[in-house]
Write a structure and sequence with these properties.
heterodimer; A: about 240 residues; alpha+beta; B: about 160 residues; Immunoglobulin-like; five-stranded antiparallel beta sheet; four-stranded antiparallel beta sheet; 1 helix
C-alpha cells in the first residue's frame, strides 16, 4: 500500500511537469506574431527574418506589397546586346534606389539572381558574367519575426578582396525593430577594374539579431525583469 | 520511510525547477542569424587577331598572339601599296572595343589599317574583317613592321 502511494505521488508530479512543459510549448508556439494572408503558404517552414528579396538585374520588375515596383527598369532583354534574353536586363551601372530607375548600360551582359531559403534565414545571390563597373543592387525585406522587439546586433560583410566593393544599407547596427516591423535593406556589389577574368569571388553578409534589452513585457523575458516600473503592470502581459 | 518519500519529491522538484530555469534563460537570450551568401563569377574580355592573308605579292602577314600583326614586305616598288587582310575577334563573353592601334614602322614607310578604328565595339563572339596596306617611296626596299592592337571593355 505504501509503495503504491509513492508511485501515485511521483506520477502526479510527472503529470504536472508534462502539463507545464506542454503549456510552455504552446505559449512559445503562439509567440510568432500576426500572420499576413500572403504569408500563409510559406509559414510552414518560416523561422527567419528575411521576407522577400529582389535583384534589379534578373529581367523582371518585382512588385512587393506595400512598396510597389521595387526595381523599375529591370524589364528584360538588352538594347544593343542581349546575352540572357528575358532572364536579365540592360546592366545597371549605378546603385538603384527602391522604386526609382537607375542608369543602365545599353547592353545585357551580366545578370544577378537572388533567392531566399525556405526558412527565410538565408539569401543567395549569384552574379554571372560580371565585368568591371557592373553594379547590381539586391533589395531585401528584413522583418522582426517575433512578438518582442529585437535589435540588429551586428552586420558583418566578409570579402577579403579588392576586386569587389560590397556595401549594405537600409539596416544598421543597433537598429531596433518593433514586433513585426519590416525594414528594407540594400546590398550593392560593384565589380572593380582589377577584377580578373573567369574568376569567382565569394561574399558573405551576416546579420545577427538579438532580443532588445528593455523591451518586451512578457513574463520571463529579459526586458520584463529589467523594466524599471514592472510592478505597475496589472498582468503578465503589457 | 517518510524521509525517503520527501527526498524523492524534493529531487523531482529541484529537477523541475532547473528545467524551467534553463528554458527561461534560453528563451530570454533569443538570437537569430541571417545570412546573405553571394558568388560573383566574372566573364572574359579578350580580343585576338586571327586569319591573316596576303592579298598582294611581296607581302607576308602573321599574327603574334593575341594582339600583334607582323607584316613583311620584300623588294617593294616605289609608292605601290601592298595589302593584306586579317580578322579581329572577340573571343570572350563580354563586349570589347578597340582601345588603340599602334604602328611600329621603319623610316620611309607608311601603313594604314582599314575596316577597324579605335573605339569600334565588338560584341562577344563576333569577328570583324580588317585590312592593312603599306607602301614606300624607296624602290627595292624590304622592311618589316608590326601593328599592335589593345582592347578594352566596351564601357570604358
Amino acid at each position: 500500500m505504501v509503495k503504491r502511494f509513492h508511485f501515485a505521488k511521483a506520477g502526479l508530479v510527472c503529470l504536472a511537469v508534462v502539463v507545464v512543459l506542454g503549456s510552455l510549448g504552446v505559449a512559445y508556439g503562439y509567440s510568432s506574431g500576426t500572420l499576413r494572408t500572403g504569408d500563409i503558404m510559406a509559414m510552414a517552414c518560416v523561422t527567419g527574418p528575411f521576407t522577400w528579396v529582389v535583384s534589379n538585374d534578373d529581367g523582371e520588375v518585382n512588385n512587393i506589397s506595400p512598396y510597389g515596383a521595387v526595381d523599375p527598369g529591370d524589364d528584360g532583354g538588352g538594347t544593343n546586346h542581349d546575352i540572357w534574353g528575358y532572364r536579365s536586363s540592360d546592366d545597371p551601372s549605378e546603385l538603384q534606389t527602391m522604386g526609382v530607375g537607375c542608369a543602365r548600360y545599353d547592353k545585357d551582359v551580366a545578370r544577378t539572381k537572388a533567392c531566399m531559403s525556405c526558412d527565410h534565414n538565408k539569401i543567395t545571390v549569384k552574379i554571372k558574367n560580371a565585368y568591371p563597373c557592373y553594379y547590381p543592387t539586391v533589395f531585401f525585406g528584413l522583418k522582426n519575426p517575433r512578438n518582442f522587439s529585437v535589435k540588429i546586433k551586428s552586420i558583418d560583410i566578409n570579402y577579403d578582396i579588392p576586386e569587389l566593393t560590397v556595401t549594405v544599407d537600409g539596416i544598421t547596427v543597433n537598429q531596433v525593430l518593433s514586433p513585426c516591423e519590416e525594414v528594407v535593406g540594400r546590398l550593392m556589389i560593384h565589380t572593380e577594374q582589377c577584377a580578373q577574368q573567369y574568376a569567382t569571388y565569394d561574399i558573405e553578409v551576416k546579420v545577427v539579431l538579438v532580443q532588445n534589452e528593455g523591451s518586451g513585457c512578457g513574463w520571463g523575458r529579459w526586458g520584463w525583469w529589467h523594466y524599471r516600473y514592472w510592478w505597475r503592470h496589472w498582468g503578465w502581459w503589457c | 520511510m517518510k524521509g525517503n518519500r520527501f527526498a524523492r519529491v524534493g529531487i523531482l522538484s529541484i529537477a523541475l525547477l532547473l528545467a524551467l530555469g534553463v528554458m527561461g534563460v534560453g528563451y530570454a537570450v533569443w538570437t537569430d542569424t541571417a545570412i546573405v551568401d553571394g558568388t560573383v563569377e566574372t566573364g572574359c574580355w579578350v580580343g585576338v587577331l586571327g586569319e591573316p592573308a596576303s592579298i598582294s605579292q611581296n607581302i607576308t602577314l602573321s599574327v603574334a598572339p593575341p594582339d600583334t600583326l607582323n607584316v613583311g614586305v620584300s623588294n617593294a616598288q616605289a609608292n605601290t601599296p601592298y595589302t593584306g587582310s586579317f580578322e579581329v575577334n572577340n573571343a570572350g563573353t563580354v563586349p570589347i572595343k578597340i582601345g588603340s592601334i599602334v604602328f611600329d614602322l621603319p623610316p620611309d614607310t607608311t601603313a594604314i589599317v582599314s575596316g577597324v578604328n579605335v573605339g569600334d565595339g565588338i560584341d562577344a563572339g563576333n569577328t570583324i574583317s580588317a585590312g592593312v596596306s603599306t607602301s614606300t617611296p624607296v624602290p627595292g626596299k624590304s622592311y618589316d613592321f608590326t601593328v599592335t592592337f589593345t582592347f578594352v571593355l566596351w564601357n570604358e
